[in-house]
Amino acid sequence: MKILGIETSCDETGVAIYDSEQGIIGDALYSQVELHAEYGGVVPELASRDHVRKTIPLVKEVLKQANCTKDDIDAIAYTKGPGLIGALFVGVGVGRSLAYAWGIPAIGVHHMEGHLLAPMLEDDKPDFPFVALLVSGGHTLLVDVQELGQYQILGESIDDAAGEAFDKTAKIMGLGYPGGPALAKLAEKGRAGIYKLPRPMTDRPGLDFSFSGLKTAVANLYNGSDKSEQSMADIAYAFQEAVVDTIFIKCRRALEQTGHKRLVVAGGVSANVALRAKLTDLLESKGGKAYYPRPKFCTDNGAMIAYAGYCRHQAILNGQDQFEEPAVRAK
Ligand code: KG4
Ligand code: ZN
């Protein structure tokens, strides 16, 4: 079975084909980073227009990569949300129209389920059950995953998401857009112990997060600093350390609460090297294991949507779920 996946929820147009026998056989991504860089963040209207330009060419490209024609595709999965509404409309419109024209099912996929399942595309994939930490630009979630589709949210951010905190802090420090990777890179040159920032909400019980206070704390540090390269790196280090420590404490708590020995980490911030190192150590110390997608599948991509669409399609075939729209059925 071959599923074409389309992702257009934010500023990346991602298209891929997942084959149930061979895995990902076509994968193309177009990033709009340059388009939005001069505005210091994603401009939704520009994002939608660019998805319109790029989605169909990428569909053609992945069909070519996979050596397929439209007749080889069994279903189309598209991101149905959450995301920028105009951007989502492009993927939904293209996905459902192609499915209608090709006479195959269209499957709407939840963007965060796409992220959650992305580590399943690796050779070393996690078995169920596990705790999932989803850390992206829009969400910070701890989820108890019992089975495919059985998700219980254990905790989430009550304000900024982890990636959003990276991006906003980077903006305060003049690091441009996208800020997360730039701030992480600067932190590599920072020294431990120079600045100390709070670990928000770790001194009270529960698994919710709050990151908005950290950016204010960084703004104060930054405004009072000499803004030299070393001071900037030290501030970046302190910020990253505070985010990573906070996430570490909450993950440890979630693992203790659920008794699970596996932690799946996904979403854009799961590309962060310091976070990976700390969580990998945590799981090793507990005799368990942490699982991550390869770096290019941490951030938004079509492959995770194609794979999640395949899983949804299987659930539908097994009678555990149903197609959203009655009009489009199998060939
Ligand atoms: O999952 P994603 O591509 O989009 C959303 O669904 O939001 O995540 C993007 C987020 C951005 O906030 C970006 O700054 C952050 O992931 N990010 C990072 C790193 N790479 C991407 N944050 C920290 N360190 C990184 N290496
Ligand atoms: Zn995402």
TrEMBL record:
It catalyses: L-threonylcarbamoyladenylate + adenosine(37) in tRNA = N(6)-L-threonylcarbamoyladenosine(37) in tRNA + AMP + H(+). Its main location: cytoplasm. Substrate binds at L134, V135, S136, G137, G138, D167, G180, N272. Binds 1 Fe(2+) ion per subunit. GO terms for cellular component: cytoplasm. Residues 24-307 form the Gcp-like domain. Its EC number is 2.3.1.234. PANTHER family: TRNA N6-ADENOSINE THREONYLCARBAMOYLTRANSFERASE (PTHR11735), TRNA N6-ADENOSINE THREONYLCARBAMOYLTRANSFERASE, MITOCHONDRIAL (PTHR11735:SF6). NCBIfam families: gcp_kae1, T6A_TsaD_YgjD. Required for the formation of a threonylcarbamoyl group on adenosine at position 37 (t(6)A37) in tRNAs that read codons beginning with adenine. Is involved in the transfer of the threonylcarbamoyl moiety of threonylcarbamoyl-AMP (TC-AMP) to the N6 group of A37, together with TsaE and TsaB. TsaD likely plays a direct catalytic role in this reaction. This is tRNA N6-adenosine threonylcarbamoyltransferase. It comes from Kangiella geojedonensis.
